[in-house]
Amino acid sequence: MSTWIRNAWMEAVKLKRLSDIRRKELRQAAFAVLEREGIAGATLEKVAAHAGASKGIVLHYFRNKQELFEHAMREANAVLRDAVVARLRQARTPMERLDAVIDGNFEEHLFLPPLCHAWLSLCAEVPRDEKLARIQKVLHARMRSNLLSGLHGLALPGEADEIALGVTALIDGLWLRLGLEPGSVSREQAIRQVKDFVAARLAMHQPATVGA
Amino acid sequence: MSTWIRNAWMEAVKLKRLSDIRRKELRQAAFAVLEREGIAGATLEKVAAHAGASKGIVLHYFRNKQELFEHAMREANAVLRDAVVARLRQARTPMERLDAVIDGNFEEHLFLPPLCHAWLSLCAEVPRDEKLARIQKVLHARMRSNLLSGLHGLALPGEADEIALGVTALIDGLWLRLGLEPGSVSREQAIRQVKDFVAARLAMHQPATVGA
DNA sequence: CCTTTTATTGTCCCGCCGGTCAATTCTTGA
DNA sequence: TCAAGAATTGACCGGCGGGACAATAAAAGG
């Protein structure tokens, strides 16, 4: 087809040059390999094989191994972000915003052991890779800010920060549990856990709405 | 010195054959390397160098790399365990037992980024190493049991389990935070976070001890 | 003192892995 | 149709890492 038609199509389908498609395939392949092999066992050949390509092509699209896995982390981060913002868009009250963040972080197709394993491997490299650290930082800042946007309406001003920290830590911890002992915590359990935490902390220094 | 004297001495100083000493040195060296290099960059040569020995000696005391790092994890696990049981021995009330577990998990010389980095790297390999998984499992079971021994006196029977899960997850999550962004959470902050969590969850469905 | 373990080293090998490169095929656009 | 550029491959290289091993030094033990 002629150029302008293709261009129009590209704009409609959101900037998918062929190279962009390949890059996405490779990022995802990288992440998939990470799920099974961990950072120590993740090799360029395996990534290439998983994407049905040759090792050469991987280094054609990414300068080196580091860059590849940085992009893999960005991808995963984006997926998580989208899950939350989708829910966040439909939230009207502060409480709904809180629930959006919580539910989003434990979505069915996200809260899974393999995904957690890969994420864990990436986190383990954060101290040695500035880029990974930045991605991590952004992710955490976003989560915190999303939580605060809900908490400001519900918690005492001085406590919102602390509760937000607790919630993020609790969520991370539940993910970690899932990764370390798959099956030891269900999606519903995790969600209830975090929501109970929020409820308990909100009620804590409140004028006793208990037993009413 | 003659054999029986040496044996007596050994018993007094707790079974330190020369080989045991070397093995301990090497486990610790392995852990130290893990702190700096992560699982991907941790090599036998580096461990040997850090212990001031040759690579050969490492494989003389440990069948292979895997076994070495399994023992490194056991070592770290033991250190954490000892920190908690020491405090646990002095605890008289259920609440004191809870605090013992919490404080023990955030001890000054334990709650440090490098240690957390190493631990994180080991956790990331858990899904691919049965032995590591078992150590992890034991550690978690112990922590849970310690918590329950305190909670049974304080929480509703049906809730103790869930609170224990929450506490372990929260503790893990706070450690993770420390590893991902050193300085983003202080020891005191972490302790307060967990204790507030316990307090809030215990007060939650209680006959309103609030505002009294 | 001599023998038998044990500790320790350095060397060697093999396989793998990241990365480069030239060669080849495929697309694209005029 | 053709030229320019992109995509893709496979071969190759240097290096390193895990592990085996033989040789040597040191202890232990009778």
From TrEMBL, chains A, B:
Pfam families: TetR_C_6 (PF13977), TetR_N (PF00440). The keyword Transmembrane does not apply. It comes from the Bacteria. Keywords: DNA-binding, Repressor, Transcription, Transcription regulation. One of its GO terms (biological process) is glycine betaine biosynthetic process from choline. Gene3D superfamilies: Tetracycline Repressor, domain 2. Repressor involved in the biosynthesis of the osmoprotectant glycine betaine. It represses transcription of the choline transporter BetT and the genes of BetAB involved in the synthesis of glycine betaine. Repressor involved in choline regulation of the bet genes. This is HTH-type transcriptional regulator BetI. It comes from Mesorhizobium jarvisii. The lineage of its organism: Bacteria, Pseudomonadati, Pseudomonadota, Alphaproteobacteria, Hyphomicrobiales.
